[in-house]
Amino acid sequence: FNFFFFSAGSILAVTTADPYANEKTNRFVGICIQRGGKGLGATFVLRNVIEDQGIEICYELYSPRIQAIEVLKLEKRLDDNLMYLRDALPEYSTFDVNMKPVSRLDHEEIPVNKLQVRMKPKPWSKRWERPKYNIKGIKFELPEKKMKEAQKWSQPWLEFDMLREYDTSKIEEKIWKEVSEELKK
Amino acid sequence: SITGACRAIQKLTRVRVVDNSTLGNTPYHRPPKCIHVYNKTGVGKVGDTILLAIKGEKKKALIVGHKMPAAPMTPRFDSNNVVLIEDNGNPTGTRIKTPIPYILRRKEGEFSKVLAIARNFV
After folding, report:
1. Domain containing residue A34
2. Any idea what the Cα angle at residue A169 is, between residues A163 and A171, rounded to 5°?
3. Closest-CA residue of chain A to B66
4. pLDDT values of chain A reduced to their tens digit, one per residue, 185 residues
5. Which CATH number applies to B13-117?
6. How far apart are CA B34 and CA B14, in angstroms?
7. What's the structural domain count of chain A?
8. To the nearest whole angstrom, how far is the Cα of A128 from the nearest Cα of chain B?
9. Nearest to residue B55, comparing CAs of B88, B89, B90, B92?
10. How is this protein annotated for GO cellular component (chain B) (predicted)?
11. From first to last of its 122 residues, what are the pLDDT tens digits of chain B?
12. Do residues A132 and A156 make contact, with C-beta atoms less than 8 angstroms apart?
């Protein structure tokens, strides 16, 4: 089978219909940094660096303007959200526009690229060293003191918190009914 | 200390001049800043004209890309890009290397000369 699938970290080439482009089509090659939205409004953001200028385009997967999506290289990275590529050195976001699609066999698993990305000097757009983002794909060259300070914001109780999964809607309804009856009296 | 880069262009945002004009490329101890946006709201998006203060002079410019996420299917640049322009709409420089969004072609009449010197489109 040829399932069409890609994840954050794979390199795609998208051709859209554009009324303002000559030849009416517009081709953009880039790495997918995040996939968001559900259903018809699902989007994916492609990033590339062209002529020293970083460009990101958010495409809607099911928009009729998209004519073709080619997966040039299907691979996964260590994280789902590669927004930190904005603060990484531009060499990690540059991809050749005329890249040839990398062939892969159907039954192979999706390869995981364990690349550790080097960052530009701080300040960054977000504090990626904090455990809330849980990023594994950056090679932090910060001093140990900063890494320890970042761990102050970790919330180790979060994974053991049962009330997050517990459905309290029925209990809340009962309490609300009682309270409203008391108020009416 | 410096404030973070402004996402859309308004008064006092530092911009990056993208064409090869002398005024835009000669180094100066202050970066070019926007002092007025020719818009009903003071926020400039792609295709708006702004007034720039460069090297102690006032100059009009056209916004070609900003950091703020715009409509889907439109590009979002990593820096606020601007092309220097005269009062009648003629660009000051002769070449634009950085990519320009295709959306600018909407107002073909005013910016046709800017689009003519642009090399890459996105």
Report:
1. 10-184
2. 85
3. A55
4. 667 888 889 999 999 998 888 778 889 999 999 999 999 999 999 999 998 899 999 999 999 999 999 999 888 899 888 999 999 999 999 999 998 888 877 777 888 988 899 999 988 888 899 999 888 888 888 899 999 999 999 999 988 888 888 888 999 999 999 999 999 98
5. 2.40.150.20
6. 7
7. 1
8. 16
9. B92
10. mitochondrial inner membrane; ribonucleoprotein complex; ribosome
11. 667 666 788 899 999 999 899 998 999 999 999 999 999 998 998 889 999 999 999 999 999 999 988 888 889 999 999 999 998 889 999 999 999 998 888 877 788 888 889 888 88
12. no
Residue A3 lies in a domain: no
Nearest residue of A to residue B108 by CA position?
A20
Query: Please, which residues 93-122 of chain B have a Cβ atom closer than 8 Å to chain A?
Result: 97-99, 102-106, 120-122
Chosen for mutation from B74, B77, B78 (greatest number of chain A CBs closer than 10 Å) is: B78
The beta-carbon neighbor of B121 closest among A21, A43, A58 is A21
Query: Smallest Cα–Cα separation from A51: which of B101, B98, B83, B24?
Result: B98
Q: Could you give the C-alpha distances from A30 to A24, A87, B29, B64, in angstroms and in order?
A: 20, 16, 36, 20
Residue A100, in any domain of the structure:
yes
* Residue A158 falls inside a structural domain: yes
Q: Which residues pair with A76 in a beta bridge?
A: A112
The answer to whether the CB atoms of B76 and A56 lie below 8 A apart is yes
Spatial neighbors of A21 by CB under 8 A, at least 6 apart, are B102, B105, B121
Q: Per the domain annotation, does A4 fall within a domain?
A: no
* Cβ-defined contact of B73 to A56 (cutoff 8 Å): no
A16 contacts on B by Cβ (under 8 Å): 73
